[in-house]
Amino acid sequence: MTASDQSASQELRFPKGLHWYHWAVIFLSLMLTLGAFYISEKQIQLKMASQFEFQSQQIIELVKERMVRYEEALRAGTAALKMLPTAARRQDWREFELSLDLDERFPGINGIGVIHYVPPNKLPTYLAWQRETMPAYQIHPKHDQAEYWPITYIEPQNTNLKAVGLDIAHENNRYTAAMKARDTGEASITAPITLVQDDKKTPGFLFYVPWYDTANYAEFGSVESDFMGLVYAPFIINKLMDGTLENANRLINFSIHDEETLLYTELNSDSSDLDPDPLFMRTETLELYGRPWRFDLQTTAVFRNQQSHIQPYTILICGLIIDSLLLSIFIISTRSNRRAVEYANHVTERLKQRNDELETVSASLKEKNKGLEEANAELDQFAFVASHDLKAPLRGIQQLATWIEEDSEELLPDDTKGHLTLMKSRIARLERLLDDLLAYSRVGRKDGDRTIIRPKDLTLDIFNMLNHDGKFELSENMDNREIEIFSTPFELVMRNLISNSMKHHDKAKGQIKISMTVDSGRASIEVSDDGPGIPEEHQQKVFELFHTLKPRDKVEGSGLGLSLIKKILDRYGCEYSLKNNNDGGLSFFFTWPVELINKEEQNENGQPINQSHR
């Protein structure tokens, strides 16, 4: 048994279950799914954290920005006090407050006022000065400090009347922040206090800006320095936050502590959109005008509702579905492969049996092929010998007929002379028939070599060889580029077509026209004459062996021309057709495989080729 037989006889094996690499692919796909889920979840968490950080920082920045604006208003007050030529009175301050338009431009502020610094030696003069415009004016409450810091003006006065005359030195938080502002020259705020004008007693604070002036006022001002007092604003924290940040549809809730004292909170059950289990929380301490404000911030229910967790779970579900599909595909594929292997083993066994049968047949075919090759060689030898041996006696008969005709030209009757002429014609026709039969039998035996030709030159050579005395025309599109073809069968086709056209064209005035174009590796050739044409019902019969439309004695050819052409064109896979021309005559169209060598050429005069010859 040969190696191929041994290979064919071996049964294919296939594992009963999934292979290890199937499980590896499923495991890797599952890991990719979980990894994509984890990364997507992390990205969403980072995005939410970034949004929380931004919103938190925005709240803190808004509080800082609002306090800076209040500081600017207070400093505008100190500037206004300096610009007055005399000490400002209550009416002057009221006009200044109206110019600020507090409710519109500074929401959250309770008012804006002036605290005069009054040394003990100036107290009587100060009280007399204030009672000129407000007879009931009193400094209150009493305290043990050696100096007085009374709130002289506060606008709008009607909502802050309880604060008029209040001496801030009576309470430590107010007094400490006031002395700090005086000593540093910087704005400051107090620790948490309860404003006297706030009936609800909610947490608040005072915002101070120190006021200095070189004027020597008899009613107030330090004797040792230029310190005149403070421009201040009282704040209730809840009102300040409402004016700064409206607690509606916000993403962040927060609370503010000054050290351990709660100033403001939204982190209770009464707060809008409170999230009892916030997604994010943070604490940040802000140093604000000398006081540490601690912001406790957390996300709201609005923040939670705006976040979408669909994408990670969509990725997870889709990934698990894909993993399940992969597993299903592997199982189905494994089963299909197992069935395919079983079928392949069955087919292999049948092929082995068939191969054994074919080996027996092959040995027989080899013997037959050898016999066919020998038979073909003998046929070629027979055709050549038959053609040669048959031509020899035909030529002898032809010569005898010629001698008889010459020797008895004056003795023979006209009927006998006609018989001699007919005999000579049939002898010549028989000789042509032998040549055509030999050519027909050799078609397809050998293609010959591919050679480079010029179609126009080849066509002219065929005309000259056939000694044609009529006119022929090469049309303007007769391609004269060099092409590479099997020239021997091509020349045989062209010679038979041109010869056939010569036999049937109008010998008195007719023309034979030939056109040729080359495109996409094929040449298209058309040979037209102006003869009688062929009726459509006979156009397919003319390709049959020995078929002629006229009696054989009236036809110059052997009846094999078109059959020979058809056999050659079929051999090379060419298209061909016959058609009658509108103005008489017949056109034969066919294609031929070519390979283009050079570009299109013109004749010697630089004109497209269009020649006539006689």
Automatic annotation (TrEMBL):
GO terms for cellular component: membrane. The chain crosses the membrane at residues 20-39, 313-332. InterPro entries: BphY/WalK/GraS-like, CHASE_dom, CHASE_sf, HATPase_C_sf, HATPase_dom, His_kinase_dom, HisK_dim/P_dom, HisK_dim/P_sf. Residues 139-247 form the CHASE domain. It is an enzyme of class 2 (transferase). Its EC number is 2.7.13.3. SMART domains: CHASE (SM01079), HATPase_c (SM00387), HisKA (SM00388). It catalyses: ATP + protein L-histidine = ADP + protein N-phospho-L-histidine. It is found in: Membrane. GO terms for biological process: osmosensory signaling via phosphorelay pathway. Pfam families: CHASE (PF03924), HATPase_c (PF02518), HisKA (PF00512). Signal peptide: none annotated. PANTHER family: BACTERIOPHYTOCHROME, TWO-COMPONENT HISTIDINE KINASE. This is histidine kinase.
